[in-house]
Amino acid sequence: MQHKLYIHNTLNRQKELFEPLNEPFVGMYVCGPTVYGDPHLGHARPSITFDILFRWLRYSGYKVRYVRNITDVGHLEHDADEGEDKIAKKARLEQIEPMEVVQYYTIRYHNAMNALNVLPPSIEPRASGHILEQMEYVQKIIDNGFAYESEGSVYFDVEKYNQKHHYGILSGRNIEEILENTRSLDGQSEKRRSVDFALWKKASPEHIMRWQSKWSDGFPGWHLECSAMGQKYLGERFDIHGGGMDLIFPHHECEIAQSVASLGHSTVRYWMHNNMITINGQKMGKSLGNFITLDEFFTGSHSLLTEAYSPMTIRFFILQAHYRSTLDFSNEALMASQKGFLRLVEAYERLQKIVPSKETSVEIKDWNTLCMDAMNDDLNTPIVISHLFDAAKTINTVYDGKGTLSETDLNMFKAVFRTYMIDILGLKTEQGDSKYLDSYKKAIDLILTLRLEAKQNKNWALSDKIRDELASYGFVVKDTKDGFEWSL
RNA sequence: GGUUCCUUGACCGAGAGGCUAGGUAGCGGUCUGCAAAACCGUCGACAGCAGUUCGAAUCUGCUAGGAACCUCCA
Questions:
Q1: Does any strand B atom come closer than 7 Å to the Cβ of A49?
Q2: CB < 7 Å to strand B — which of 271-310 in chain A?
């Protein structure tokens, strides 16, 4: 395997050479969505980021097991206060089962991911299907003395843990100061310290998902599922754990504490975190209510959007920024991505039509190596895209008749686009390829061939009529030197 | 208040000591029956101040502005 992939490890905040534990196998775990709402643009970022990593690792020759969970436990409560909301009201009236909510939004999530051309993970475990594993995990932490029971709930003893290990290793926090400050504050609560977190929580009456345990009727703590399921499917040590930056603390910090408390050592070697998507400079998030759902993008049904944006435009938009940078959303930025992506797609389509010559007369670069280097540098997709644009420019020159390409070089172009644009970046150029579509394309080609004849006869009235009519149906007709191109 | 980080041209964004990405928009041209596309050229930036250096967008310090996390969040 010839690879020198460097990835940014949150543990020490620098790029490190990626060396898997058991080459050629790679285990990666990514925090998936909590399925209680429609997926929004923010959800698309980790999915796409780690989809890229998944694809790149596989392309590099690894055998990857990619686990991404569905969180369907812990957040679901009866919304007693939001009485005026029509949907909530209806849900209450119809007595919807929590699993119906889970089912509904899981399907919505999968549909959106599918549209974005995000490959399904190898395993997609659900928290609700791993209650036993989580209970065992809790018991192990109790047995090792790092948790205590209190009124039916079980809490992780952060102070005790921190005496032997470093709680805060991932987020760069010094918990001792916090411990000093909070020691006297919370005597009445069932938790000993405010920093302690729940491993098992006794269910209050409004909690509708609950399981029997030796401690209480309740449900597992929020951080536990990832530890338990990661260990179950990837082992006591595995390579990569990913998620959004907002999960670093407390979620991933707690995961580390849990696995160390249970196993005596940490599980994950490389922690990777994608940055946030912002809107007007502020994080797009569920709690802030400033999110736009993926469906709203696909249909254009949001006041901030002037039109509908295809899933591939969204994907391209996200890949034009590095995953560790914030990405500021605006309709204007999205329009720029849409046009840019179209430019690449058109270049790719033209590439298929270029006839090879004996010699290459244009300047070419080793784009394959350039793209590979960019990917190996912590998945620098914006650089890969800039190389594709560079190559596209050359393709256009040749297509324009201002240069030639030999068969070897032409094949190199095709391979680069095929590999990087289609396979690695996952940017589909075709929206579909049914028989209907094929026939319909031929019909349009026929009409435009007739128009070409009209043009040759200088029948401008007819040729303009065809173009204008087609335009009114949404087609864009472009004349080339000796033919035409069209798109919708 | 604590921890971490950011500020690049009209907009979105790479880069991380000299080689000053890329896209979108703008401007000028070539091509064209017209239009569009394409191609060529062009405009235009490193928040401010001070320092280190032969040389700084890139390193250091200060100032201003902003963000994330510290509660669920991708």
A1: no
A2: 274-278, 281-288, 291
